[in-house]
Write a structure and sequence with these properties.
Layout: E1 7-8, E2 11-12, H1 13-27, H2 42-57, E3 61-64, E4 70-73, E5 84-89, H3 102-115, E6 119-123, H4 131-138, E7 145-151, H5 156-160, E8 164-170, E9 172-181, E10 185-186, H6 198-214, E11 220-222, E12 226-229, E13 235-236, E14 239-248, H7 251-261, E15 267-269, E16 272-273, H8 276-288, E17 295-298, H9 303-309, E18 314-319, H10 336-352
Parallel strand pairs: 5-6, 5-7, 7-18, 8-17
Antiparallel strand pairs: 1-2, 3-4, 4-6, 8-16, 8-18, 9-14, 9-15, 10-13, 11-14, 12-14
Helix pairs in contact: 1-3, 3-10, 8-10
The structure holds glyoxylic acid (GLV) and manganese (II) ion (2 copies).
Length: 353
């Protein structure tokens, strides 16, 4: 039971509560159910305004780049490649949870304030394709290292009984669409035998895509959006566009998956490896606290992958997800104890960089 002024895991009680309270403030933005802060929306702007206020309160020097990414620099800390960034994103998927992205931002503000060095970064529009971090790596100064704290979004840490985990690498992500054509017709007068129904054909495509991913170890593929033309209850569908999101842990499997599904990605981020020296640093922090060291790959995409691919040594600290590891859902959950431990490890790692 915590009381004001009592220290646990290196954080005074009021700061521990502050991290969780800030997640609630962010979650309260916009209409429910769940978090709805789509990239570059008024809701994402409002979240950035809150983070900016917390950065000012923490005595950080605020900066916004041309893509709208927000920075909070500790005063007097190094610049350019001497600088260490830590942070994540504040946008969410539709009806998202409380922790994805937001935890990495509030934890970063806490950690940078505490150690008085480094910069907090809040990247724009991560969920729809890392727009903010991708813009930054093509046209802006980059740091010497990047640390991203994030929830695991899966069950592996909970299964291993480990509060925290160290990411070894991030899966490659390929996105695009498949268009299926058919022939429009009257739903009441066209006999079944002469129909060319695009949606029925698209349904078979979805099953084929699922099967293709199942044949490649650790590959996944998802059809998350279906657009039907003309989209009327009494018209046989003439055309369907399926979104495809396909992922695999290495380039060879990414290429095989693309070939098996058969689509041209309009968006591709290659798999990335986290920097060995930063992973060692995190491992030393976990070992020093007597915590189990679990290393795992990330199936979810992250801004850390974009920075790593651009040559910035990057690392990720995962926090155990509860509720079976569910994420991109209002049921996303991590415990206050794990969160405070993660903030403590992040701050310690930042201090040693
Ligand atoms: C982001 O959460 C992604 O992996 O799609
Ligand atoms: Mn995220
Ligand atoms: Mn996400």
């Amino acid at each position: 039971m915590g009381l004001p002024g009592v220290w646990r895991y290196g954080l005074p009680y009021h700061r521990r509560v502050r991290v969780m309270e800030r997640l609630e403030w962010l979650y309260a933005i916009g209409e429910g159910p769940g978090a709805n802060r789509i990239g570059y929306s008024a809701e994402e702007d409002a979240a950035h305004d809150l983070a900016r206020m917390w950065m000012v309160e923490a005595g950080l020097e605020v900066e916004v780049d041309v893509a709208g990414n927000l920075f909070g620099h500790a005063h007097g800390s190094e610049t350019g490649t001497g600088r260490v960034w830590t942070g994540s994103h504040l946008d969410t998927v539709p009806e998202g949870g409380k922790f994805d992205g937001a935890l990495g931002v509030v934890a970063a503000i806490e950690a940078v304030e505490r150690v008085g060095r480094g910069s907090v970064v809040v990247f724009r529009d991560e969920e729809r394709g890392c727009a903010g971090s991708r813009a930054r790596v093509t046209s802006g100064e980059l740091p010497g290292a990047f640390l991203e704290l994030h929830i695991e979004q899966g069950p592996r840490l909970a299964d291993a009984g480990a509060p925290l985990g160290i990411v070894t690498g991030i899966a490659g992500v390929m996105r695009g669409s498949i268009v299926v054509a058919g022939r429009e017709g009257h739903a009441g007068t066209t006999p079944m035998g002469v129909r060319d129904d695009a949606l029925v054909k698209a349904a078979r495509e979805i099953l084929r895509i699922e099967e293709a991913a199942r044949t490649i170890e650790d590959a996944v593929a998802t059809v998350g959006q279906v657009e039907v033309e003309p989209g009327a209850v009494n018209v046989i569908p003439a055309g369907v566009t399926l979104s495809v999101d396909a992922r695999a842990p290495d380039v060879e499997r990414c290429d095989r998956l693309l070939a098996a599904i058969g689509f041209e990605p309009t968006y591709r981020i290659d798999p990335s490896k986290m920097a060995p020296e930063l992973r060692d640093l995190l491992r030393a922090e976990l070992e020093g606290r007597g915590l189990p060291v679990v290393e795992l790959t990330s199936g979810a995409g992250h801004d850390a992958g974009v920075l790593a691919t651009a040559g910035v040594p990057s690392a990720m600290l995962f926090v155990r997800s509860l509720n079976g590891g569910i994420s991109h859902s209002p049921d996303e959950l991590s415990s206050e104890e794990d969160v405070e431990l993660a903030v403590d490890v992040l701050a310690a790692a930042l201090a040693r960089l």
